[in-house]
Write a structure and sequence with these properties.
Blueprint (H helix, E strand, L loop, with lengths): L1 H8 L6 H7 L20 H7 L4 H12 L8 H5 L9 H23 L9 H10 L5 H11 L5
C-alpha cells in the first residue's frame, strides 16, 4: 500500500493517459475500462468517476461510514484527510480500508479484471487481528467487514 499511496499522491500511477504520454506503443489516452471516452489521467477518473471502479468505491464508503468518523467524503478519504476528533485505532482502520481498497482496485484494473468484490480484504483484516500490536484495529475491521475474528 505504501508504494501505491506514494504513486497516487505524486500523480505517478501508470494510467492509460500517462502510458500514452510515456510509451509509443499506447495509442489512445482514453480509459480502456469504461465507455465514457474520458482520458484516464487523474485519480478522480481512475478511482471515482470510472464505471469500472464505482462499485468498490461505493463499498468503501459504506465501510468507512461504519467507523465513528464524521463528514468524510470519498475525495477526502482517498487523500486520507479524516476530520478530528478521531482515535488512533479508528484512523488506522480508515487508512487501512482506503489503502487496501485502492491497492485491490488498482491491481484489478491493471490486470483488466472485474472490480466487484473485496472479499480478500476480510482475510487480511483477520490476519491483522492476530497481531499483537494492531489486534484492536484488526478486530474492529473484522466487525466492519463481517469476518469472524475468533
Amino acid at each position: 500500500c505504501r508504494t501505491l499511496f506514494w504513486l497516487f499522491f505524486h500523480n505517478l500511477l501508470p494510467t492509460q493517459s500517462r502510458l500514452h504520454r510515456i510509451l509509443r506503443t499506447v495509442d489512445d489516452p482514453s480509459c480502456v475500462h469504461c465507455d465514457s471516452g474520458e482520458n484516464d489521467h487523474t485519480w478522480y477518473h481512475t478511482f471515482i468517476s470510472c464505471g469500472h471502479t464505482a462499485n468498490i468505491m461505493d463499498w468503501l464508503m459504506t465501510k468507512l461510514n461504519a467507523l465513528p468518523i464524521d463528514n468524510v467524503s470519498i475525495e477526502t478519504a482517498l487523500w486520507l484527510q479524516f476530520p478530528p476528533p478521531i482515535t488512533e485505532t479508528d484512523l488506522l482502520c480508515a487508512t487501512w480500508l482506503v489503502g487496501e481498497s485502492l491497492a485491490y482496485t488498482w491491481a484489478r484494473r491493471k490486470n483488466r479484471e472485474d472490480v466487484s468484490s473485496a472479499s480478500l480484504l476480510s482475510t487480511k483484516a483477520f490476519h491483522l487481528s492476530k497481531t499483537e500490536k494492531y489486534a484492536d484495529a484488526g478486530y474492529q475491521l473484522c466487525a466492519i467487514l463481517g469476518t469472524n475474528a475468533q
